[in-house]
Specification:
This protein is mainly β. The protein is about 0% helix and about 50% strand. The chain has no helices and 11 strands.
């Protein structure tokens, strides 16, 4: 069965870093895109980043303007895990982060994604 599990969230101070993990199982990871979304308290879920799992020069990830230059994607093929490296974190980055399997790199949570993880909480203090 297809399954996605996020981990790595926590509480950090502004300017700190976190690495989120999205562990995938039940499918061939490199044949799908993995999208990252986040949802802050009282706000709608928003796009963060998306890329085919095999990040390379031929597959450039897409990032939301709010995280460009601070977040980056990588993967561990052996463990079928996609990582979201989050640097220079800001309080505005606070929220529940979700990863999702997609058929293309959509910035719309309602288009192109069929499986989602349960999310991991990221809290950035001032």
């Amino acid at each position: 069965q297809v399954k996605l599990v996020e981990s790595g969230g926590g509480l950090v101070q502004s300017g700190g870093s976190l690495r989120l993990s999205c562990a995938a199982s039940g499918f061939v990871l490199d044949t799908y895109y993995i999208g990252w979304f986040r949802q802050a308290p009282g706000k709608e879920r928003e796009f963060v980043s998306c890329s085919i799992s095999s990040v390379s020069s031929d597959n450039i990830p897409t990032y939301a303007d709010s995280v460009k230059g601070r977040f980056s994607l990588s993967r561990d093929d052996a463990n079928k895990t996609v990582f979201l490296h989050m640097n220079t974190l800001k309080p505005e980055d606070t929220g529940i982060y979700y990863c999702a399997r997609g058929y293309y790199c959509s910035q719309n949570e309602n288009r192109g994604y069929d499986y989602w993880g349960q999310g991991t909480q990221v809290t950035v203090s001032s």
